[in-house]
Amino acid sequence: MDLPLATSLIDGAPDRAQHGHRLEVIDPATELPLCELEEADAPAVDRAVRSARRAFSGWSRMGTDQRNDILYAIHDRLIAEAEPLAELEARTTGLPIRTLAGLVRRAAINFRSFAEVASTLSGESYSQNPDYLTYVTREPKGVAALISPWNAPLALSSMRIATCIAFGNTCVLKPSEYTPQSVLRMVELMHEAGLPDGVVNVVNGRGGVTGAALVDHAEIDMVGFTGGTATGRHIMAAAGRRLKPSIMELGGKSAAIVCADADFERALDGTLAGIYASNGQQCLGSSRILVDRRIADRFIAEFVRRTKAMRIGSPVDPTTEMGPLAFKAHHDRVLSYLDVAASDGAEVLCGGGRPEGLDKGWYMEPIAVLAKDNASRVCQDEIFGPFASFLIFDTLDQAIEIANASDFGLVAYAWTSDLGAAMRCSREIRAGTIWINTPMMRELRAPFGGFKDSGTGRDGATSSADFFTELKTTSIALRDVALPQFGAAAKE
Ligand code: NDP
User: Fold this and answer.
1) Where are the beta strands (DSSP E) in 250-386?
2) What is the CATH number of domain 5-249+460-475?
3) Strands 222-226 and 246-249
4) Nearest to 202 by CA among 37, 315, 333, 349
5) Domain assignments of the chain as residue spans, ordered by start
6) Which of 31, 39, 198, 386 is most exposed, with the fewest beta carbons within 10 Å of its own?
7) pTM of this structure
8) What is the pLDDT of residues 273-294, one digit of tens each?
9) Given a cut of 70, is residue 1 above it in pLDDT?
10) Residue of 231, 247, 275, 279 with the most ligand 1 atoms within 8 Å of its CB, for mutation
11) The domain 255-436 belongs to what CATH superfamily?
């Protein structure tokens, strides 16, 4: 049977050119091929960038209200198609459909939110000098290369696209080779909602081929990247060679501090969700759980009991809490950390086996370990799977020190009923976002991004406007101020 083909989408239409290299996209729940991906080579990437460049003149000059009508229509179209989109994403990523209902909605909301930001942008003016009026305006920056990962393709690609096009830019997006389908469908829907051809182009293929050709293209004005830290370093260096600004949303190894005075049940719910939501494949996962010694035995025992009771199964079953991991190499890498844990001297508390009745697919029982210390690899490496590493602390000072002893600094969580302790965590932990008594609350108006190896730049209302626009200063003389008159003396 012929498999469906995921091509690139250039200038509003599927790119039918044959590029020679095809990849199979595998269903993580069955290990069977889902579709074939036609890899975009350098000439295809070039066509996509040229299409974005052509579209830039019209899109960037369009009035914001007219542009926003299209962005609101995209929001409505994605909401109307939320169910099939979620199912498509569940099949390629293995993410449970119940998680995806929220993520697809978030994808739609990204377009509405950044349209709202664009419609309230204003400039500055300076009239302190009576001879001049000087004003500062924002202009779209140009054509962006956007690169997104496989762990939440719709939510993360839509974030990159929305923050880019809402301010009048155009783009070429490269999704992950493992999960091309849902993003492709989303961009088709965006065109059905009225997006002009060429504003958003999609090139599919491997990072080292299609992604590298895109980042290296001379006509790219900026790079927006979401993915791993090592890839981010590489891409930022490539962009730097061409002096292209880049925004980097990278990895994390975030700490959740559970104080003895925390609401026990809420802290338990929150830390379980913090690490195991989205199959543990989230940059903002609370993968290091730091528990006060006074409640540690009870908390960890309850955590393990609940972890063992999680419903693992088909991602399209609405009762499933955890689906299969996204692809085999990733599944095997996460599992390999059980050996690392053993050599680190960690105690494996649960998980790592194949769940009963699931003989095919990249399933695993969620893992929890009690680490020997924070220096061990299970506390330092981003494992990016359903793998919780526990540590025990005696004082808040110690917990904050452990939270900060990491190369990453994306987010941190604190569970406490002591306002002073909450404020100390907020002030002293070096991370871009601190969540107090809540897991993952994403406020789109506020900046999101990482300290240290977790990235540079921020997504959010003001930060995205700053990244995706250029500032222009115009000065107008209000009277005939005296000018130097070079050569005037010679005339006399
Ligand atoms: P990768 O860094 O491996 O890949 C991310 C994207 O970059 C993919 O589309 C990949 O393509 C592409 N890519 C790889 N190499 C190159 C290259 N040389 N040039 C251009 N593009 C390239 O990350 P993962 O896909 O494994 O995603 C997981 C990572 O993403 C984790 O570290 C996670 O923490 C991070 N992440 C960060 C978030 C944040 O907001 N801070 C949010 C979500 C994830 P391909 O897959 O086809 O190889």
Assistant:
1) 255-258, 288-292, 347-350, 367-370
2) 3.40.605.10
3) parallel
4) 37
5) 5-249+460-475, 255-436
6) 31
7) 0.96
8) 999 999 999 999 999 999 999 9
9) no
10) 231
11) Aldehyde Dehydrogenase; Chain A, domain 2 (3.40.309.10)
